[in-house]
Amino acid sequence: MLIGRKNKQKLVRSQFLGQVEGRSYYAAELTSEIVAPENMLFCDLRRLLGKIPDALFFLAGKAYQIFHWDRTHQYCSHCGARTENKIDERAKLCPSCGFVNYPRISPAIIVAITRDREILLAKGSRFQADFYSVLAGFVEPGETFEECVQREVREEVGLEVKNIRYFGSQPWPFPDSLMVGFTAEYAGGHINIDEKEILNAGWFDVDQLPLIPRTGSIARSLIDWFIEQVKSEETSSI
Ligand SMILES: [Zn+2]
After folding, report:
1. Distance CA 187, CA 189 (A)
2. Is the C or the N end of the chain the one with fewer CB within 10 Å?
3. 106-237 — its CATH code?
């Protein structure tokens, strides 16, 4: 977006994002009183998922993630002095004690648990949204992804899983997650939800799915994968 001369004084700070086909891209943080240029408007990023091309969404997500880190690391977390941008890499350098701080990325697992024609879906208590989705949770220090899958599933719904397989990953810039997707099969136990995290959870037949997340998220890709798996097995067994 072109900032325009009269709005230049409203630029708080900017960050270099990278080069694409010889063109340099920057992200700029503006003060709240700025007026969008004609025929442009400011949008909430989360609402744009699935409505703009994925590449554009994730470039904007990268900008959002870098800005969140930039804004929250203006001071050294070790000694409290004001930090500076490191020249040779994306990091904050403390000129007082030398502490270097890199952009924070928080890995989280997201897992589709299946049982024949059924998938386990849950409604989270943290979201107002009315849809059901697959389980997710942050990785803890000292944990592998597979251990995290087992722990999260056990804690949130009281089930055991087996055959945990990597599915794919997706940066999720709200504010700094990296979602690492897995598929797993039900291995035992009865659903017993953690009421702090989950409002409701259940097994859903492929033909009777509730409202699910919109296209574009890895949660939706996992559910779509499950539907495709069941349907292709049915077709091949006819
Ligand atoms: Zn310091």
Report:
1. 7
2. C
3. 3.90.79.10
- Identity of the amino acid at 88: D
pLDDT at residue 3 in the model: 47
* pLDDT tens, residue by residue, 159-201: 999 999 999 999 999 889 999 999 999 999 999 999 888 999 9
- Could you give the count of Cα atoms lying within 13 Å of 113 in the half-sphere of its Cβ? 28
Q: What is the pTM of this model?
A: 0.86
Question: 18 C-alpha vs ligand 1 centroid, how far in Å?
Answer: 28
Q: Residue 60 and residue 45: Cα distance in Å, rounded? A: 8
pLDDT tens digits, 60-73: 899 999 989 998 99
| Long-range CB contacts for residues 50-56, cutoff 8 Å, separation at least 24 | 50/214, 50/215, 50/216, 50/217, 54/216
- Alpha-carbon gap, residue 136 to 72, rounded angstroms: 25
- Numbered ranges of CATH 3.90.79.10 in the chain: 106-237
Neighbours of 79 (CB within 10 A): 11
Q: Residue 98 Cα, ligand 1 centroid: separation in angstroms?
A: 6
d(CA 87, ligand 1 centre) in Å: 17
Give me ligand 1 centre to Cα 104, in Å. Answer: 17
Report CA(149)–ligand 1 centroid distance (Å): 36
85 CA from centroid of ligand 1 (Å) = 13
Structure token digits, residue 60: 């904007």
pLDDT attached to residue 1: 45
What confidence score (pLDDT) does residue 15 get?
82
